[in-house]
Here is the input.
Amino acid sequence: MSSPFPAVHSVLAAPALADLLRQEYALPAGLQVTLLRRNISDTYLVTLPDGERAILRVYRSGWRTRADVAWELALTRHVAARGVGAAQVLPRQNGELWGAVQAAEGERFYALFEYAAGRPLQTTPEDAALYGNLAAQFHASATDFAAGERFNLDLDHLITQPMQFLRPLMLDFPEQWATLEAAAQRTHATLSKLAPRLSWGVCHGDLHELNVRVAPDGLRLIDFDCGGMGYYAYDLAVYWWSQVTHSDKPPAESQAIWEAFLGAYQAARPLSQADHAALPHFVLARSLWFMGLMAGRAPEFGTETLGQPFFDFGANFVGEWMQKEVAD
Here is the structure.
């Protein structure tokens, strides 16, 4: 029998995953597994015969190392044990928090999480304040966390590496590339000067509004996959970036929502002057990181996904933000 043709990213069959879950987690027969979305990792809804639900994440091959996955899941448990609302990882029968399967493209890790019930976070000052307070709780709860190896959310990770992914895809877009390159150089230089005075610790890495649920008993954080040791100001700036790039609200309303988030955070964990000064620069870093993230996925998503509209939007935002928020 010939070997399977090499794949970049396969979709694992839901019935086979259901069999895997029954074996590894002692779940009952009759459970249903449904693919919710394909993204950096694949997310599945697991529905048990009694109506209980869980979330299965299957990591992309080569996206995270074993140490990375172990760090992420240990952090999830750590902060929950200290009272932070977080969707808990559910252990396999052998007590391990994750497992691995061999897919066509190579080894893929998986983990099962409790279902975070509740409504999505709304883009209102009230919900933003709730989220800001939760972000402060999260940072405080993780100050004593230490478990294995993990990448850092440093300037190399946020700016240098993403630009390397973007460069070969932007040969036909010299004007947009020039804007991004200038922003990257300026942002890196500014943050490098501020770095010795910036607060550093365990970060979630992806604190936008889609990674939290609002339930009657409080908020639940989800998806710690982009977390690592990093700058707290960057962690907070992710939410600002999300408001100014993904919201359909007028700029004044988006600014009020960001200020409600930041104000609630600072009521619990005041920021230093340097952290404040870094926030708008980290919005630029986040924008560059996101574009680089997508560029790095071009072999799976396709280069047409990253055509001129994508680069135009990114370069226009970066150029306008530099003029408006970080002008000399």
